[in-house]
Amino acid sequence: MNLPTQLVSEAHPDRPRTSGAEPAPVSWHWRHELQQFVRFVRHPWRGRPEAAQPATVHARRLLLMLALCYGFILCIALPFNAGLSWLGLDSDEEPLSFLFFVVAVGVAPVIEELIFRAGLRQAAYTLFIGPSLIASIFGSWPLMLVLGGFGTCCAIIDRLWQNRLSAGELRLLKLRRARRFLRRYPLIFWIYSIGFGLAHIHHFFGDGWLVLALPLAVGAQTFAGVALGYLRLRYGLAQSMLLHALYNLTACVLALMVARIWA
């Protein structure tokens, strides 16, 4: 479906309104980056990728975002999941084999970032292509085929309809669609971030009313999805892939250390 998002008037903001143009910082500082992240969490915006920066700046930013993810785990997710575990919620433990390490660090970051965040800038992807790919992550192939077929039908019908419009009507249609997309973008971003967290729900299982608590058990993964989305939209897809790989790498190393200690 042809839903371009570039034809947006300058009057429509693609980021939260401010009193004036905010000058870019001369040098990177973790406090400034943290403020930008908090602003983004309050109101996600598509924005534009930042200009090229030195590798040292990217490395410091990745370490900051990794620290935020693990800070969330230690302060919120770990105590909360410990309480759920005390109530009877169980979690599976993946065997720390070499194959698991390769998949977690080298394969999963690429595939999951391509599915959940590569198309976050395009309306057609977020509305039609992404949902069918996410359905495949959950193992629901019939749902994937239904969503894929629905998106294909919409694209064909929309193309036939656009061919009947004049050039002026087509430009106006694209502009209206782009504005609607930007206006609803925070909701779209949160749906994809929560969907990323729910994609890891298979690691937890419980009986009775604890089933309702399963979405809350993946809070750490959901927060990681927000951090990854922030990096993807502001600094590019490669940055979110690097943070994803670094996140999984440190998780594997920590799990291995704990297994050795308790062995």
UniProtKB/TrEMBL annotation:
Keywords: Hydrolase, Membrane, Metalloprotease, Protease, Transmembrane, Transmembrane helix
Residues of the CAAX prenyl protease 2/Lysostaphin resistance protein A-like domain: 97-249
Transmembrane feature ranges: 62-84, 96-116, 123-139, 182-202, 208-230, 242-262
Gene Ontology terms for molecular function: metallopeptidase activity
Pfam families: Rce1-like
InterPro entries linked to this entry: Rce1/LyrA-like_dom
Domain of life where this protein originates: Bacteria
Keyword flag DNA-binding: no
Keyword Cytoplasm: no
Region span, Disordered: 1-24
Name of the protein described by the UniProt record: CPBP family intramembrane metalloprotease
